[in-house]
Amino acid sequence: MKVEQISIFIENKSGRLAEVTRILGEAGVNIRALSLADTSDFGILRLIVNDREKAKQVLKEKGFTVSKTEVVAVEVPDRPGGLSQILQTLDSEAINVEYMYAFVERCGENAVIIFRFDETDKAVGVLQANGFSMLAGERLYRM
Amino acid sequence: MLFNDEFETLPRPALEALQLKRLQAMVTRVYAHVPFYRATLDRAGINPDHIKALEDLKCLPFTCKQDMRDSYPYALFAAHMEDIVRIHASSGTTGKPTVVGYTRKDIEVWSELMARSFVAAGVHKGDIIHNAYGYGLFTGGLGAHYGAERLGASVIPMSGGNTQRQIMIMQDFGSTVLTCTPSYSLFLAEAAAEEGIDFRKLKLHVGIFGAEPWSEAMRTEIEGKLNLCAIDIYGLSEIMGPGVAIECREAKQGLHIWEDHFIPEIINPVTCEVLPPGEKGELVITTITKEGIPLIRYRTRDITSITYEPCVCGRTHARIARMSGRSDDMLIIRGVNVFPSQIESILMGIEGVEPHYLLIVDRKENLDTLEIQVEVDERIFSDEVKHLQALSNSIEKQIKEMLGITCKVRLVEPKTIMRSEGKAKRVIDNRIM
Q: N or C terminus of chain B: which is more exposed, having fewer CB within 10 Å?
């Protein structure tokens, strides 16, 4: 139930984000979801893409530092209180969220939240036990 | 193994007697032939006959880089031009270069001292020396080359640059010894890794690195990446070129300076007083056998200390410590003396940090600022901001604790810090003084 995300180190200077997306675009890599964490000096771009290996390879060739991380994609009903339920469950089990970002499924009625936990396996167990629906990586990459 | 058993193990009393005899002869000769020295010695009220003991050396005036510039190009030569067989010049960072001339005997001595240095580093006849020091006006290339031939090893005169070709030759020719600057060795390792070449499959067993200051931590890095024994060599064109001093493979604890040809002293760079063994200061060298351009008490600007303790290798010549910087590339940041090598040691002590860094010194609202750029590679990268911030905070904290200065660490993308194929540029000082 885990999903692979790639993370890229980018310096906080003009044109770097454009460079990453250009490289991915030219390699035919499609971005499914993304988030950017930024500081005054640098940013960490986190992506879910259709072809992780290819994305990693082309970015490394161009000199970027890239890493892969396991995250969890949880489906949330697209209505008020949907996210709150998940967070309350996690909180009651003392599971920390390192970061998260969301997108809405193209034709479905659900939102998808990407979570990065400090204890991924434990979090997956808790979410499963509480009946939350998680998306398998393969489904997400092909979405 | 020794190259010259007799002279490398000369008992101290005999060595010192030889030094005195040679010093007296040298001072007499420069007094007679070099107007600059006649004038400075006269000004100091010293006649060559006044030198009765080695201690009298400290009464003689110093020679500085500026004196060499003022004597451009040949005014400090003590031999006639028809006896000069080679001319080298040091890279002048400001203005004219400093020019040195060698007689045939100077070249012979240099070749022998470089051959001694190779043997001290564990190089033998039969080794294939890949000499990537620059050939040309710079003394590195030809200095190492002549020493290699004197030893009877095979030397490949690669010179610097053209990294892909260096790697190909190293592989195909079966190079066993690498001579270059320490920063270039890492550049080679990086380039080789990109081509998927494994240094463990090459035949290199020793690398002789010099011409720029480097740290013990950098040695560990080089030895790991190039799979060889890294030896520190010291030299400067004003004194001779490479081979003035070198570490012995047996101890790797300080560099033996060939005292039958050079007399080293350590001085306080500010007060100029001679410091006792063990104390850190500026290295001053008197050449006692040079004919082309003998120098009295030349101030090298290199910071080190000296020990006369016996060494396990059996050589009786004093050892100078690894250069910890130069008294003139010393940075003064908010009144604190900082050597780039100190910062390098701290950086290299941090897991995953590459030896490519850049120090940017600036002055904002009358306050000096120091920014340290560090490249982020996969070993230190994290998808979480807090981990990267913890890394830069930890570097900043260690520098504050160890050097007493506040700095800002900026994490930059890999390979964005300029690589050098010669001496690495580690500092950009934007202050307008």
A: C
